[in-house]
Amino acid sequence: MDRVKDLASKKAAVIFTKSSCCMCHSITQLFYELGASPAVHELDNDPYGRQMEWALRSLGCNPSVPAVFIGGKFVGSSKDVISLHVDGSLKQLLIDAKAIWF
Amino acid sequence: MPEASRVDSFCLSDFDQSIGNHLENAVELSGNPVNNSLKVSSQTISPGPVHLGTSDRLPISVDRSSFMYLEDRLSLLAQKVQSTNHIIIPSGDTENQEGSAMADASPRTDISTDADTDDKNQRFDGSQSLAAVASDSSDRSKDKTDQKTLRRLAQNREAARKSRLRKKAYVQQLESSRLKLTQLEQELQRARQQGIFISSSGDQAHSMSGNGAMQFDVEYARWLEEQNRQINELRAAVNSHASDTELRMIIDGILAHYDDIFRLKGVAAKADVFHLLSGMWKTPAERCFLWLGGFRSSELLKLLVNQLEPLTEQQLVGITNLQQSSQQAEDALSQGMEALQQSLAETLSSGSLGSSGSSGNVANYMGQMAMAMGKLGTLEGFIRQADNLRQQTLQQMHRILTTRQSARALLAIHDYFSRLRALSSLWLARPRD
Predict the structure, then answer these.
(1) Residue B374 placed within a domain
(2) DSSP annotation string for B32-83
(3) What residues of A are in contact with residue B339 (Cβ under 8 Å)?
C-alpha cells in the first residue's frame, strides 16, 4: 500500500496497469487523448506487483487494473473513469491536479 | 406473292428458304414434267431475312405435276416445322425447369406458331393463284392437302394451348410453395424466440450457449414491447400538453427501463458474449450500425442536436461536450478492442513446430490456449463498459435538457430505431427473382 501511495503521489495522473490488460490500454489512451501524460506502472513488471494488486483491491478497485489516481487520490477503475468522463468531471479533476490546462 | 415478314424463328426462315429453293426448281424444270427429275435441294438451315427471290422470275405457267410435288414437299415441311415446335414447348415431364424459363419458352413458340400459320396460309394463297393459272383439275388434290395441313395446324394450336395451361399450373404451384415456405420460416422464428430450441446439430455444448442467447432474445423482445408501450404513453402525454410533473414521471420510467436492458445485457454477456457482439439479437439494419454490441452514443447525439432546438447557449455547450466525451470514450474502447485482437492473434500464431519434443509442444499449445482463453474473457469487460458509456450518456443528456426537451429526445431516439427496424422488415420481405 505504501508503494502504491508513494507512486500515486509522484505525478498528477497515475495509472496502474498490467501489460496484458487491454482495458488498461483503453483508459491510458483516453488520458493521452485528453492531453494528460499519466505515469503508467505495470504490476506484472514490478517486483512488488502482487502486494500492490492486493492493496488496490482493498481500496475497492475491481478489477484491480486499471487503477487510476489523480492528484494522489484514488479515482477508480475503468467504469468510474468512463462515468466521470461523460459528465465532465474527469476533465475538471485533471485540470485541478494540473495534469492538463484546459 | 406476299413477301414474308421477318419472324424471329429458326423454323420459319428455314421453311421459307426451302420454299424458295423449291419454287426455283419448279420453275427451272417447267419444261420437264417428270417428277423424278425434280431434285429437292437440301434444306439449308440458315436463319436470315426471308424473301422469295423467285418472285421476280416466276413464269405464268407452271407444270401441274411439278406443282403437286411441290405441294407435297410443302406439307412435309409444314410437318417438320410443327414437330420442331413441339420440341420447343416444354413438356409436363420437365417439372424441374424454372417457371420463368418456361415462361420465356412458350410465348416465343406461340408466336412462331401463329406467324408460321399465317405465313403458311399466305404461301398457300400464293401457290393457289399459281395453280389456278396452271390448271383447274388440280383443285381436288389441292383440297386434300389443304385439309391435311389445316388439321395439322389445328393440332399445333391445341398443343400450344395445352402447354400454356401446364405452364400456368406450374407457376401457381411455385407461388403457393413460396408462400408456404415464408410461413414456415416465420413460425420457426417465432418458435425460436419463445425459447423452443430447434437444433440442427445435437451438440450439448452448443445448446447450452444457445439457451443463453435464446433467453436474452426473449427478454429483449419483451423489453421492446414494454418500451413501445411507454413511448406511446409519453407521446400521448406530450400531445395532450401534460404537465411537467406528469412528463417527468413517464420519463423516469423510460430511463429506468433503459437501465433494465443494460442490466440484462450484462447477464447475457456472462452467458454468451459473442451473441451480444454479433448483434444477431438486433434487426439487420440496426446491425449495420453496431458498435461493441449496441448503438453509438455519439452518433445518436449528433442526430438529436438538430431536433432539440431551441437550445440555450449553455445547453448547446453541454450537448456538444457530451458528444465529444462520448466520442473520446468510444475511441478509447475501440483501441482497446484492437489491442485485444492483435494480442489474441499473436498468442495463437506464435508456435514452434517440432523444434522441441512432442511433450514440449503440447505444453506450449496448452499454454497458448490458456492465454487465449484469458484474453477472450476480457471481452465481457469491453461490452460492459460500452453499455456503461451508453447508459451514462443517456442520463447526462437528461440532466442537460429540460423535461419537455428530454421527452422529445426520447421520442426521437425511439422513432429512429423504430424506423431502422421497419427498414429491416421491408428489406427482408423484398421481392427477389
Answers:
(1) yes
(2) ---GGG-PPPP----------GGGGT--S---HHHHHHHHHHHHHHHHHHHH
(3) 22, 25-26
Instruction: Look at residue B335 and tell me if it is in a domain.
Output: yes
Angle at Cα A70 formed by Cα A69 and Cα A76, nearest 5°? Answer: 45
Give CA–CA dist B395/B397, Å, rounded. 5
Q: Is B350 exposed, middle or buried (0-12, 13-18, 19+ CB in 10 A)?
A: exposed
Q: What is the ipTM of this complex?
A: 0.96
Q: Is B340 part of any domain?
A: yes
The shortest C-alpha distance from A9 to chain B (Å) reads 25
**DSSP state, B4?**
P
Domain spans, chain A? 1-97
CATH superfamily of A1-97: Glutaredoxin (3.40.30.10)
Question: Mind listing the pLDDT tens digit for each residue in B112-169?
Answer: 444 444 444 444 444 444 444 445 556 667 777 888 889 999 999 999 999 999 999 8
- What is the pTM for the complete model shown? 0.62
Domain of residue B280: give its range: 212-349+364-429
Q: What is the pLDDT of residues B376-416, one digit of tens each?
A: 999 999 999 999 999 999 999 999 999 999 999 999 999 99
Phi, psi angles (nearest 5°) of residue B93: -70, -35
B152 belongs to a structural domain: no
Rounded CA-CA distance B1/B213 in Å is 80
Residue B328 to residue A30, Cβ atoms within 8 A:
yes
